[in-house]
Amino acid sequence: MIIIQLMLYCALFTLMVKLGVGNNALNGLFFYPKPVQEKVYALGLADRETVRRRRKHFMIAFFAVMAAALVLIIRVWNGLHTFRPAYLQALLFLEVMNWYDGIVIDRLWVGHSAYWVIPGTEGIPFVQTWPQVLKKRGILTAIWIVGAAIIAGIVALI
User: What is the largest CA-CA distance in the chain?
Assistant: First the structure.
């Protein structure tokens, strides 16, 4: 059952990214490295304030939905209500999501889809290299240790 839940959680992650970006990669410009962003601004395809506002709105909705889904999976679907088992399960979900994002989203989807290429920026690298993925995911692995405690705390309180 946990494998199905992990797959559904990662599918929700993908759906949130797709909904956030819609049918135009420019809507997700905040995901791109600074050189791509600067080129897009120079081309007049987007402005900083709009990108800042989209990032803020996306991140608030994304974290709220993903956290709520995780609490519901752990507390309601799996029936856990004490901190330690909820923490271990939250940690598993957050770490799988972390590596799913780096490998499936960043390297596979973004790296192999013309959808993510913004016209006028074709020559600027925007896909993370494997060393960048490993570094970023390693840092996030440590951060999610704390994030799992927050989720487990919520689960134990409700």
Answer: 53
Residue with tokens 């927050």: 150
The answer for residues whose C-beta is within 8 angstroms of residue 89's C-beta and 6 or more apart is 2, 74, 78, 80
Q: Kindly state the tokens that stand for 45.
A: 């395809």
The owner of tokens 């989203």 is 105
Residue 34 CA to residue 93 CA, distance in Å, equals 30
The tally of domains found in the chain comes to: 1
Helix, strand, coil shares of the chain, percent, nearest 5, are 80, 0, 20
Nearest to 86 by CA among 97, 96, 72: 72
Residues in the chain, total: 158
Residues of the chain with pLDDT under 70: none
Helices 48-71 + 130-157 axis angle, to 10 = 50
**How many CB atoms lie under 10 A from the CB of residue 108?**
11
Distance CA(52)–CA(73), nearest Å, equals 31
pLDDT at 90: 98
Copy the structure tokens of residue 37.
């962003």
What's the pLDDT score for residue 123?
92
Return the number of other C-beta atoms located less than 10 Å from residue 75's C-beta: 19
- Residues of the domain holding 86: 2-157
